[in-house]
């Protein structure tokens, strides 16, 4: 029989303290009744002796020491799941907000999940197609990978996330694929942008959305990614689907953690964040992967905004330790109206080499990617030299590199917000741009591959090809 406790001992921000508690456990869900009618949920975050510290999801604004009844449920937070969640929109703790009624739950799952046994993990192999050349060609996303996007305030990471949701697929595979999209601490207009974009593009039937708005309680923000990943694990490991999880913005999640930690009086660590920031992030990111003997997979793209564009900030710094690479957005490219403004050189995908090439994408993929990285690095050297001695004084080959760099940024990295390039288009465009350079400069490519794909091109040829492609699109 559940015991109901009358009154509270203390209210402090999103936290309340209850005394005289028996048999309470960490992460246990608590139900509050305020003034006899208002219902709220909370979870126990600390227990000592007969006291329990409880986080209240909906906030403590209407709660006082005398008007609240508390009931311990005896179980951690759970979410009801079935395949009906596809195409639905939920709030940050998994309640439907799309006016389509409650979910007819097939199972209930603990949102905290269980860590995957490393022995049961299967090595990621196949790629996920995003239709974005800078990602597909140079930092290929592999099924079961966690590949974050490092952005900055004002950069178009929201548009990039929406484009990935619209265009993502398993390439030529006919296996079942779906997307779980979780937004934390976003403004109403941003949430509406995502919702409208998915509906208008016709992809919402295979997207599950979890929205925690900026005016929603801070504590709810800490639960949102866990709820989203629980839904992803259910669809992947119990329904055999390949799931891409997009989490935006992880920085909002970490800020919420810092705020709640401060309310609890915990000793802060770097930049005021709690000392367990690393383990909390790892708890989220490590829920990506593939399990041996199971059909599905969970792939993650966490998006985080770096405060002051500082990649050494604790959030991107710790994220980089845990994940398998990163995609970095660049403010300078954004200033040149290049979309998506992906900075190629600091971006990488550590699992890319095992999911591309013959049998996966195309035999020349690894060679052409290596060559593009090498040539673009030399573009930076040529630009630095030009800023010192002037462009007219550069050698002919350095001038060619400047031309290549400009075309590479505008034609390969840059593409339309609704442009979905196939892997074949991406690799062909890469060879078209490498044709701007002399063959002897392409020293990262196998000779047989060069013989098959290398064709010298000129700026006129690139411009003509672009004009023909624009005409076809019209």
UniProtKB/TrEMBL annotation:
GO terms for biological process: proton motive force-driven plasma membrane ATP synthesis. Residues 131-349 form the ATPase F1/V1/A1 complex alpha/beta subunit nucleotide-binding domain. It holds the Pfam family ATP-synt_ab. Residues 354-454 form the ATP synthase A/B type C-terminal domain. GO terms for molecular function: ATP binding; proton-transporting ATP synthase activity, rotational mechanism; proton-transporting ATPase activity, rotational mechanism. The keyword Endoplasmic reticulum does not apply. Residues 9-63 form the ATPase F1/V1/A1 complex alpha/beta subunit N-terminal domain. Keywords: ATP synthesis, Hydrogen ion transport, Ion transport, Transport. The keyword Transport applies. Produces ATP from ADP in the presence of a proton gradient across the membrane. The V-type beta chain is a regulatory subunit. Belongs to the ATPase alpha/beta chains family. This is V-type ATP synthase beta chain.
């Amino acid at each position: 029989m559940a015991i109901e406790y009358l009154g509270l001992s203390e209210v402090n921000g999103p936290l309340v303290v209850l005394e005289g508690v028996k048999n309470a456990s960490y992460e246990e869900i608590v139900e509050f009744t305020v003034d006899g009618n208002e219902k709220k949920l909370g979870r126990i975050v600390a227990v000592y002796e007969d006291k329990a510290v409880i986080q209240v999801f909906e906030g403590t604004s209407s709660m006082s020491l005398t008007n609240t009844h508390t009931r311990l449920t005896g179980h951690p937070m759970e979410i009801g799941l079935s395949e009906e969640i596809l195409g639905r929109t939920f709030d940050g703790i998994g309640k439907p907000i799309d006016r389509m009624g409650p979910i007819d739950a097939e199972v209930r799952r603990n949102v905290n999940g269980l860590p995957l046994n490393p022995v049961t993990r299967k090595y990621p192999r196949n790629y996920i197609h995003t239709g974005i050349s800078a990602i597909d060609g140079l930092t290929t996303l592999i099924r079961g990978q966690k590949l974050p996007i490092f952005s900055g305030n004002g950069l178009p990471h929201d548009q990039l996330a929406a484009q990935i949701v619209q265009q993502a697929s398993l390439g030529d595979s006919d296996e079942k694929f779906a997307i779980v999209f979780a937004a934390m601490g976003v403004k109403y207009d941003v949430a509406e942008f995502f919702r409208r974009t998915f509906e208008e593009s016709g992809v919402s039937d295979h997207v599950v959305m979890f929205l925690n708005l900026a005016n929603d309680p801070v504590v709810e923000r800490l639960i949102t990614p866990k709820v989203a990943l629980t839904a992803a694990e259910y669809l992947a490991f119990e329904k055999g689907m390949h799931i891409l999880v997009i989490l935006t913005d992880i920085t909002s999640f970490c800020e919420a953690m810092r705020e709640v930690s401060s309310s609890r009086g915990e000793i802060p660590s770097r930049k005021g964040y709690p000392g367990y920031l690393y383990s909390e992030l790892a708890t989220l990111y490590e829920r990506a992967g593939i399990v041996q003997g199971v059909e599905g997979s969970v792939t993650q793209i966490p998006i985080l905004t770096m405060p002051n564009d500082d990649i050494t900030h604790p959030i991107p710094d710790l994220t980089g330790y845990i994940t398998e690479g990163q995609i970095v957005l660049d403010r300078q490219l954004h200033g040149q109206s290049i979309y998506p403004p992906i900075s190629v050189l600091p971006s990488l995908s550590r699992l890319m080499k095992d999911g591309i090439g013959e049998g996966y994408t195309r035999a020349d993929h690894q060679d052409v990617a290596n060559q593009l990285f090498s040539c673009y690095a030399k573009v930076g050297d040529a630009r630095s030299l030009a800023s010192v001695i002037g462009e007219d004084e550069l050698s002919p080959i350095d001038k060619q590199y400047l031309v290549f760099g400009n075309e590479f940024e505008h034609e390969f990295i840059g593409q339309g917000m609704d442009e979905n390039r196939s892997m074949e288009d991406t690799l062909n465009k890469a060879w078209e741009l490498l044709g701007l350079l002399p063959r002897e400069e392409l020293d990262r490519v196998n000779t047989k591959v060069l013989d098959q794909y290398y064709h010298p091109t000129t700026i006129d040829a690139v411009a003509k090809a672009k004009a023909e492609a624009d005409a076809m699109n019209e």
